[in-house]
Amino acid sequence: MIRSKHYGALALLLAATAVLYMWNLGASGWANPFYSAAAQAGAENWTAWLFGSSDAGNAITVDKTPAALWVTGLSARVFGVNSWAILLPQAVFGVAAVAVLYAAVRRVSGPWPGLLAGAVLALTPAAALMFRFNNPDALLVLSLVTAAYATLRALDSDAAWWWLPLAGVAVGVGFLAKMMQAFLVLPALGAVFLIAADAPLRARFVRLAVAVGALVLSGGWYLLLVALWPATLRPYIGGSQHNSIVELALGYNGLGRITGEETGGLGNMNFDAGWARLFGNEMGTHIAWLVPAAVIAIVAGLVLTRRAPRTDLTRAALLLWGGWLVVTAVVFSFANGILHPYYTVALAPAVAGGLATGTALLWRHRTDIRAATTLSGVVVITGVLTYLLLHRDSQWLPWLRVAVVVTAIGCALLLLVVVRLPHRVGTAVGALAVVAALAGPAAFSMATVAAPHSGAIPSVGPSSTRSGPPGGMFDAPRPGTTLTAALRQDADQFTWAAAAVGSSNAAGYQLATGSPVMAVGGFNGTDPAPTLEQFQAYVAQRRIHWFIRSDMPGFMFGNRTGSDAAEQIQHWVSVNFTSRDIDGVTVYDLSQGFTAAA
Fold it and tell me: What region holds the Putative mannosyltransferase YkcA/B-like C-terminal domain (predicted)?
């Protein structure tokens, strides 16, 4: 009966998570048009699908390895190119991540802590945002949670040999989704296995080496494939300056994110770097709600298990979640390169797993005044932090922040004497404390779900708390009917119906017309693809019909780095072709020939 109750609660959690992530999913339209256009291209052309090309003409790829696009591209191929087909896989990844996290925590602490961990992950605003959006972070998170679960399974003496290699494969899949960000969990996974696995030290090192081999194979095969594939038979590798997948992995999407030395980027984004970044105006409402509570719970749990045997599973889990949280939080806090607030979704499983494991241990020791006091402090700190985060928009649900902090203080006082309360009353106090802790992030998640999101840099919460343009940074243009008709006319006679600077600009026209549009310069307009000479050859071969004049943030603010080929191309077109205005957009018909020498 008790087991069926747990399974019923799990089914309810997963059903509620599915509703949260899938309800009104199509309201965001193409969401991130950059990736939606690539999914469209992959649905039409297998080469574009394999390499993650931005267009079916295979001019240039997105600036990531394409594992997430393989899923959305197949979905679009099967169900048609539409919002639901592109966004639904991310929601499925989210529900799966909650289920796997539940399984990981349940294995260590029992079903109720597992349910708590799943609920915390599901209701983290960054998760509610990214599991409804077509950036690669959803697949990344699912891969990392799977790696954590497999590592915990591998600690048992009777565990099958393949559990740890499975963890390596899962991280490899995460790498193929978002490159080196996936590696931030490796120190925690490796250290926990070496410390806590029930096997001789030599065997632990051997098994870890096998897991590393599995990681290299599962993530490295694609890099080898791209490196060996003739460059003339594949699209240019977007995000690199030398058409190199290794450069993309190690530079633009690797160490460059930490150092800020990302050739092709839009300059450093380290204005808020430091210990307070995760709690600041940019990232705070995405992830900060339960971070202090998780840290306290993990530390307290490690204190309580300090005398446990080396192979103690609870301590191993605390080290795993804590190591994941610390390494990722430090990197995110001090990174000098491109780092968007929604990246913090990668912290959510560690926060959820660490909080649930630590508080479950504290609850079991609640007869000890020190444990009860720690639980009380966790509740008070969470209530106060919730008040501060909600107060950033003083006009949005002002009653909620007051209700949370009052309830939290009341529960904290009762937790100090919980041992003297009747069992049912004490349990009710604990449950109410959980409700108070989750009320803030849950409300913010609901507000996030209720609003559509578009562009490359979405944000959480009600619209009144967001900064930036209404459509989101790097949102795609929405061409009028006359321009759309012009771009579609005779499109099948050209490799590219049009060309525009920047991937998001090109994506808007491509999604509107259903025809390939070349993204000159890649995502930021700073990749040397194509060069001016290559573009001129395409025009001479009548492979591009239209050129659409467009601007990029780096052009406007003058802080970009990388190739200036896109600027050269735009200047050459403006000098050599006659401009036309269609629906307020300046376009050039390249099929008419140019008026001056190249």
Answer: 483-575
